[in-house]
Amino acid sequence: xxxxxxxxxxxxxxxxxxxxxxxxxxxxxxxxxxxxxxxxxxxxxxxxxxxxxxxxxxxxxxxxxxxxxxxxxxxxxxxxxxxxxxxxxxxxxxxxxxxxxxxxxxxxxxxxxxxxxxxxxxxxxxxxxxxxxxxxxxxxxxxxxxxxxxxxxxxxxxxxxxxxxxxxxxxxxxxxxxxxxxxxxxxxxxxxxxxxxxxxxxxxxxxxxxxxxxxxxxxxxxxxxxxxxxxxxxxxxxxxxxxxxxxxxxxxxxxxxxxxxxxxxxxxxxxxxxxxxxxxxxxxxxxxxxxxxxxxxxxxxxxxxxxxxxxxxxxxxxxxxxxxxxxxxxxxxxxxxxxxxxxxxxxxxxxxxxxxxxxx
Amino acid sequence: xxxxxxxxxxxxxxxxxxxxxxxxxxxxxxxxxxxxxxxxxxxxxxxxxxxxxxxxxxxxxxxxxxxxxxxxxxxxxxxxxxxxxxxxxxxxxxxxxxxxxxxxxxxxxxxxxxxxxxxxxxxxxxxxxxxxxxxxxxxxxxxxx
Lengths: 360, 145
Fold this sequence. Notes:
The complex is a heterodimer. Chain A contains 10 helices and 9 strands. Chain A is α+β, with helices and mostly antiparallel strands. In chain A, strand 4 and strand 5 form a beta hairpin. In chain A, helix 5 packs parallel to helix 9 and helix 6 packs across helix 10. Chain B is mainly α. The radius of gyration of chain B is 20 Å and the shape is extended. Classes of the chains: A alpha+beta, B mainly alpha. Chains A and B meet through helix 6 and helix 10 of A and helix 2, helix 5, helix 6 and helix 7 of B.
């Protein structure tokens, strides 16, 4: 019976997609191999192969928005499609965006190129057949990130949330870091569970903030393994743009350093595949800017605190009954590990500063 | 008093069922992943039951000291009931959090004991939620020295 329901749903979607694409292209359209892929509570993903007229076959993915958004600060599918267009046109390695269908059976849907490759972080850091990819990835990810940060944000500012003020060196305006801290504090207040370690880390972030950034850029917002399509030769594309926003480069540069995204290969500080040097070097070469490691270290602490608060938020989605889900529930108990990491980083930075001062 | 198996023994039985009987039959990788999470969650509960309220009492005593109430016998008395102890810890910890955010522990001398408390609390939690993580961290720091 379940199979029948799924088949029915697929047939229904198949027909709707077909007429929408005929309308979009003004040509004959053939859709093959439509099948549902992994999805989330509020999104559906389908794979399909589309042939326009008698031309080539396009392997595609359809993303469909079902209900509300997962996170308040996440983009909706229309915004995500626009960001994908802007990055694709700027030469960032991303799946080619194809069609935005604002109302397909009542849901916003978009179609993009389907990139084949491995996306699971735990496999990318370990799989023997991806050894060459791991050697190439740090530089490829550094270079791709520089190209993301070079995307002209002028037209994007109208679509993207800018939690930060547009004034960069104004002094009065809230910096990207301050905007994150304020949001995390308000999340904690809403959650209502005391976390002294997180409060200490937030206080440290307030007191040790680097000077305001000298440029604001398009930030991917979740730049790490898990959101990269990886093939034996390396990076094939950057996925998952729902957290894109205007912010400072160090946010993306530091996120892959966060222990969680080393997938158990803890000694390899960058994404569990290398030390930061090759990633930074490629970013610097492509962007022409110099990375301040202290600034990235600050954002690594912020990233950990952000992930700690994020895990509590996920657990609340389970507890509130909004999305009852074992994985979300278990994340509530993962928080302690992440708090420990934030405290350790803070302690190491204080010790380091102490010994630097002592030797000066 | 209930008959045996007690709650810990029941949980261990379910964990064993998931790991030894259920998992080998699951081929869908996403379902497998969730079954592994289920087994892991039960292992957390099992460790938490075995630990009893030792960590909670230690957290309570640190919070009483930090709040300067250790000389006040009435305030410092350990709540007799488990639920009252939990409430007291949540209350004291919430007050501590508000003070940290307001900057009342910025001073280096005050900061040390607060940091030590937060660290001890978090480590006690990780002992229950993921003891292997602590072992890995210890090994990592050892080789770094």
